[in-house]
Amino acid sequence: MNSAIPHYTSIASALVSLFGTSVSIARTDRVTGGDINKAYALTLNSGERIFMKANAKEHADFFTAEASGLSAIAATNAIETPRILCTGTDDGEQAGYSFLLLEYIESGKKRKDYWETFAQELAALHTADTTAFVAGGRFGFFQNNYIGARAQANTPAERWVSFFRDQRLEPQFKAADHYFAQSDRTLITKLLDHLDDFLVEPEQPSLLHGDLWSGNVMCGADGKAMLVDPASYVGNAEADIAMTELFGGFPKVFYDAYRQAKPQQAGYEDRRDLYNLYQLLNHLNLFGQSYLEPVKSIVAEYVG
User: Is 209 within 8 Å of 216 (Cβ atoms)?
Assistant: First the structure.
């Protein structure tokens, strides 16, 4: 998939190219939420508002990766995402910064069928054709990206179980190795060696959001769900659904509507914790010790 997302070498040149030579920033408001990037609502002298995420210049690939994920989701025409304006870097302040400009989303009131519609549109995303998003295999993505602040490799693979072991679990276990005793390592090796005993190949590859918890879903002005902050790749749709259940879950009506639109393979509940093991390992590597026991508990659940 070739990206057509424009990239600029300053915020000034980006705004001129996007909005014309008379544009200027009339007001900058800090937006709360997220712990990786700084976020701002920029009000232009025209009255239009845009959304800007910023980070250090060396983290520009955070934003090119995010933009690619949003672009891939948008290309399916299944569910809404914010419109991408551009990515860029700017040397105007001290060491400079990188940025991502998106349309500013005014949150609306959820429609009565918000959860059912969200489920149906997510199912449409998960059943969309994925051939444009990965080459040289059925699973993976056309570029590496990030899960939170940690790098996420997306090297293509023909088999889902192999991809999930090699590109998801193994790198996270390796990074977290200092947390584990030798007895833990023995169980981890056993789990990875026997992953085919616990996971199944999907009926079809699916484009995933990749980090699908409630904080990455917002209500748009039309009252429908909109996906933000993806860590997208082509994988098994079960991984997205499992992530929705990790931190509190969505209402039952969402899962009922999703399964009606896209029936799940038998035994999903037996696989759910393995998918969330990846997310918990990532949290262990990002945030530390408090996630160790949940990780060890899941490993023991399968091979203990």
Answer: yes
199-258 pLDDT per residue, tens: 999 999 999 999 999 999 999 999 999 999 999 999 999 999 999 999 989 999 999 999
* pLDDT for 93 beyond 70: no
Q: What number is the average pLDDT over the span 103-108? A: 93
237-244 helix and 114-127 helix, angle to the nearest 10 degrees? 150
Given the residues 35, 129, 184, 211, select the one marked as catalytic: 211
SS (H, E, C) 183-194: HHHHHHHHHHHC
pLDDT in tens, 57-83: 999 999 999 999 999 999 999 999 999
Count the neighbouring beta carbons within 10 Å of the beta carbon of residue 42: 18
pLDDT of res. 279: 98
Neighbours of 199 (CB within 10 A): 20
61: exposed, middle or buried (Cβ count in 10 Å: 0-12, 13-18, 19+): middle
User: How many other CB atoms are there within 10 angstroms of residue 38's CB atom?
Assistant: 13
**What b/e string do you get for 120-156 counting C-beta neighbours within 10 Å, with b at 16 or more?**
bbbbebbbbebeebbeebbbbbbbebbbbeeebebeb
> In this structure, are strands 206-208 and 97-103 parallel, antiparallel, or unpaired?
unpaired
Decide: 208 and 239 in contact? Cβ < 8 Å.
Answer: yes
Q: Is 211 a catalytic residue?
A: yes
Mention every residue, 6+ apart, whose C-beta is less than 8 A from residue 285.
150, 172, 175, 176
